[in-house]
Amino acid sequence: MRPSPAPSPSDVAVRRPTLHRLGALTGALALSAPLVSAVVLAPSAPAFAAPADVQISEVESDDPDGGEDWVELVNTGAGPVDLSGWFLKDDDDARDWTIPAGTVLVAGEHLVLDHADAVPGGFDFGLGKADIARLFAADGTTLIDSLAWTEHAPTSYIVIDGEVTASAEVTKGSANSGPYVPPPAAEEHPDAEAIRVTEVVSEGDDWAEIMNVSDRTIDLSAWYLLDEKDLPAEVPAVVPAGTELAPGERYLFQGMPFGLGKGDQARIFAPNGYLVDGTKWPEDTHAFPSWQRCGGGEGEFGRSHVATPGAPNACGDGVINETNSSGDDFVELKNLGSEPVDLSGHRILDSDDEHVHTLPAGTVLAPGALLLITGDELGYGLGGEDQVRLQDADGTLLGQVSWTEHVTESNALCDGEHVPSRTATPGEENDCGTAEPVVTTALPTDGDVTVLDDAGEWGEDLSGLDLQTLEDGSTVLWGVNNDAGQISRLVPAPDGTWQQSDGWPTGGKHTLFADGTGEPDGEGVSVGADGRIYLSVERDNAAKGTSRNTVLAYDTNAEGDVLTAVSEWDLTSVLPATSANGGLEGIEMVPASAFAQLGAEVPVAEAYAFVVLEDTGDVYALALQAGGDAVLVATLPSPLPGLMALDHDAASNTLWAFADEALDGVSVQYQLGAAPVVASAVFARADGMPAQFANEGVALEPTEVCTDGVRRAWFADDADTDGHALRGIGLLDPACERATEVTPEPGPAPEPGAGDEAGDQEGGQDADPVPAPTPNDGGDPSASPGAEGDRPGAAAPGGAQVSVSAEGEAGSEGARSGVLARTGVSAAAIAATALGLVAGGFWLVRRSRLA
């Protein structure tokens, strides 16, 4: 290229203004360049892949190790996919869960969506035996992917070549394994012909019975029982080492790690995995009163009239209906079948084989008819520890009733089992203790039943409630979830609902027994005068078949999301024995003065409480002493056969006990200041409260602060009816007929775990609900700026990282909203400034040309 000729002086003179103009323009561009680059070169949102690249890669609906359900996603595309606002559903459109904002799934990555019981904030519905997992886009209607199954997998479900199949092994959060290969069939066991399943119950407290039908003793060590599910999908019930079964002896499986359902199975396996025997009962029906074998070890199964755990099965329609061993002894038989029963030659014995009464020939019992044999006719007496046996003419045992001590009235057949009757009824239908209709008084309300929680927030099992008034006048509502064993600290939100306090996880904090183990089934909750939270527990959910009536105290100021009891009172020897699901329900902590009229000396104690037992329906006054000892001060009989919740009003010294929907939501009051303390009034279900609400928890506004004739009440619905578990209503109470002249200003929201020295039972001053921090738009209403879910790098369910901008929004949202990463400055503002400088440069150029 040839060089350009040198400019002449005249050329220079002519071009100088041009140079001035160029210099001005160059300066403007120079000033604007950094700003333009801030816009052009600022980190931008990644190039997102198509939503169809996201697939459901693995599903766990029944973890054999007892864990919770989960769903795994994978991004098969080449770029990231923003999952913000997407929905996870099962087979019910009413159950859905929203993936948190800012959840971005990069190419090739797996994301696990966990159940809320495993990871706070996860999805809150369970995946069933025959179900489907569905993934929808943020519009709620575009189906991205789905995975369906018809029964639980032995491992997990995956997709191979478009087909749903069980996996060879669970690979949560990583690449899937191959297809499941069933284990080889076990070889026959030498004792396989000796053991038979003889009886099963699948409703209430499940149990299964096996029997040694051989003539030799069998070592049952490591034998195990399963329901319809195979290993490893089910945790077996294993016979302890060293257990031997003599000929004709029975072994009872109780407190099994699995439940027996309708149309289920009970199968016994030898230690080598060989299936020895089993039974299945009809679909859509429970094994109740029991599903029993009759006719020996190879006999047929059928539904029984009476369950006989650990005893010979009651085969046939002629059964022992009632016995009495105290006073005028008698034995009563009944035909529970639809055809006449010939009892000629049948024999009635007690525990002594020499004591025999033989029924005469021609003894025929019509359907539903009773046959009474008096003590004089028997020819022998029934003792305090004895039994009655019924045999046919050949000596085959048809039924047996045993007892260890005289019962007050009689042993009567009621609902498939022999229980103490309310009154002995020889020759008449049994008195099974059905209570006389209770006369109730109407419980008027304002009729305004208000939902006070977010849809699907709790799921089932929200149980106890208690209202606490803090020193500043603000209020806290404490709740307990019995199945998950979680305590919740709730504060009022601006929209009128109750939300978890700042720093408290969704669903509340998990609890442990005092030794740091177990899964307490907390049914009731109450605030003590010492500021601690007390739970009434009916069992350890890690051993659901065993009753464990216990009171636990917790320091809710303790750090972490898991609380270990600081004090524990085992009430097993203090209260009447109960079933595993019929023990402690409500609890209410009270001052010692509340026991003053109970007619007993009130011992010195660490705390005082009223509790209720579901099985008895009675209220028990307890002194909880240091070191774990408890003293039963008094029992308050109840006119109701079952109670669930308690609330004490300090101003009126009134204890109010509530039943759930099983007793139509009725309630009973005890005036603790009157002697003797008795049930003074029984109220019908609160007007306007639907009958189907399983209200197991109740918290009432203290009468000393309620106004305008209305007393606020909060109810916990254990059934989560219509997706809501927390509701409120106003009770019309004459004690609240006071006008409010000054409404105090609401104070600041209380700090997490904070508490005053006394709850509402001590008469603390209540105030109107305190507004909670303003919720994030479109986010968790319980979250506020700076909360855990808003920190940079907070983990989404399953561990995927969510980037958060300086404005507290998810990273991709920050880019879309025009906020430059790491600056907090609007990109539009920078661009406008840059364009202004450029325009200024062109104006200078024009001015120089005019000059």
Protein architecture, described:
The chain has 851 residues and is mainly beta. It has four helices and 56 strands. Strands 36, 37, 38, 39, 40 and 44 form a six-stranded mixed β-sheet that branches. Strands 7-2-1-10-11 form a five-stranded antiparallel β-sheet, with no helix packed on it. α1 runs antiparallel to α4. The longest helix has 32 residues, at 9-40. The two termini are 36 Å apart. The model is unreliable at 1-46, 739-834 and 837-851 (pLDDT under 50).
Summarize the structure in short.
This protein has 851 residues and is mainly beta. Strand 51 and strand 52 form a beta hairpin.
Number of helices: 4
Radius of gyration: 36 Å
* Helix percentage range: under 10%
**What is the rounded distance between the termini?**
36 Å
